[in-house]
Amino acid sequence: MTSMNPVLVKPIHSALLSWYDQHGRHDLPWQVDKSPYPVWISEIMLQQTQVTTVIPYYQRFISTFPCVESLAAAPIDEVLHLWTGLGYYARARNLHKAAQQVVEVYQGIFPETLEALQTLPGIGRSTAAAILSICHQQPTAILDGNVKRVLARYHAIETWTGETATQKQLWELAEYHTPEKRAGDYTQAIMDLGATICRRSKPSCLLCPLEESCQALAKGLTDKIPSPKPKKTAPLKSVTLTILCNSAGEVYLQKRPPSGIWGGLWSLPEQQSLNQEGILLPEQPNLVMPSFIHTFSHFRLQITPEVYFLDDLQQHEFQDSSGIMEATDAVWYNIAQPKQALGLAAPIKKLLDQFANKDINQETP
Predict the structure, then answer these.
(1) Counting beta carbons within 10 angstroms of the beta carbon of residue 290, is it exposed (0 to 12), middle (13 to 18) or buried (19 or more)?
(2) Per-residue DSSP letters for 10-63?
(3) Would the N or C end of the chain have less CB density within 10 A of its end CB?
(4) d(CA 262, CA 264)
(5) Residue 159 CB coordination number (10 Å)
(6) What is the share, in percent, of the chain residues with pLDDT greater than 70?
(7) What does the alpha-carbon distance between residue 362 and residue 285 come to, in Å, rounded to a whole number?
(8) pLDDT tens digits, residue range 91-137?
(9) Which of 29-43, 189-203, 290-304 shows the lowest per-residue confidence on average (mean pLDDT)?
């Protein structure tokens, strides 16, 4: 591991700011209004998600919830609905909780210290620092994925950036390079450099303002730094999801528990959960759709969708046995003309779209 000696390390902020003034991105939607609320929304959305993916989500979100008060007052289902497809749904749940906390505890004004910001759900050290530097020009260092990559290459740090000791070293370097003046521009500049020039693969080193001093480039290590996370074989789990379709063309959805995968989102019921609730299904499904695998961060899930068409009598018996029409955690959902704005996990939404567009054969196989 490379140790930092500030006497021998050339600060990067001067070259980086000059590059940013000429070549950086200055017209992203969240750069128009550099107040805490839009900056916070963008920072959360950009976690593990690329700018091009985030932009339409951000625009819809800000259009629907233009201020922290409107987000705090919104039903969580509406928030999750707008988040559908972005993944990592805990971010949306934490946004909602944090907005309520800002309104209730801070009267709608975001706190202006690292310590206070980090008490809000979903805001860690780097996100808090980004808000303070961009909105208030405080010289607070950030360390997101792009910044880790830039600093690891510049200093030729060959260990995995997720290791505790490496994280500590990178934070020290991030603080060392952050300037007292133009802190907000520097924050955006180093994120921009990582996103557009110092990319994970095929970095454009000849266009980089740090080319002359980059140790990874000098040592021919740009393709090896950052070191990838040690691989572990992701276990494969399997689940059977049940598509219950009534005579009106509606599909039965259940709300998942607030924690765990797809927490708080609406999903198709698992066959096992229906059995536990004492809900009796016909012996054979009307249709078994092709299985597919959805990958989470720690495991892979093989999903097998089974379709059951309920006639009016079966639906009546089904409602009597489960009380679903009175429940707050279950609903009949019209795929073709949804009246509710529900938060759906991306693979569930894709599956429902496939089901809606499929020429379904209702005969039992």
Answers:
(1) exposed
(2) PP-HHHHHHHHHHHS----GGGS--SHHHHHHHHHHTTTS-HHHHHHHHHHHHH
(3) C
(4) 6
(5) 16
(6) 88
(7) 9
(8) 999 999 999 999 999 999 999 999 999 999 999 999 999 999 999 99
(9) 290-304
Q: Which two tokens stand for residue 91?
A: 């971010």
Question: How many of the other CB atoms lie within 10 Å of CB of 55?
Answer: 15
Q: What is the DSSP string of 280-333?
A: PPPSS-SEEPPPEEEE-SS-EEEEEEEEEE--HHHHHHHHHHH-TTT-SSEEEE
Q: How many residues does the chain have?
A: 365
Q: Which residues pair with 250 in a beta bridge?
A: 334
Known catalytic residue at 115: no
Among residues 43, 112, 306, 326, the one annotated as catalytic is 43
pTM over 0.85? The answer is: no
Helices (H) and strands (E) in the chain, counts: 15, 7
Q: Which domains does the chain have, with CATH numbers?
A: 13-218 (1.10.340.30), 236-357 (3.90.79.10)
- For residue 2, the model assigns a pLDDT of 46
343 in Cβ contact with 84 (< 8 Å): yes
Mean pLDDT of the chain: 88
Helix (H) or strand (E) run with residue 243 in it: strand 236-245
| Total Cβ atoms within 10 A of residue 360 | 15
The reported pLDDT for the residue numbered 1 is 43
Tell me if 87 sits within 8 A of 93, measured CB to CB. Answer: no
Give the sign of the dihedral formed by CA 82, CA 42, CA 24, CA 9: negative
Please identify which residue in the block is written with the tokens 């950036």.
161
Alpha-carbon distance 185 to 20, whole Å? 8
Q: How far apart are CA 253 and CA 196, in angstroms?
A: 41
- Predicted confidence band at 314 (pLDDT cuts at 50, 70, 90)? low
pLDDT at 261 over 50: yes
Can you tell me the distance from the alpha carbon of 166 to that of 101, in angstroms, rounded to the nearest whole number? 33
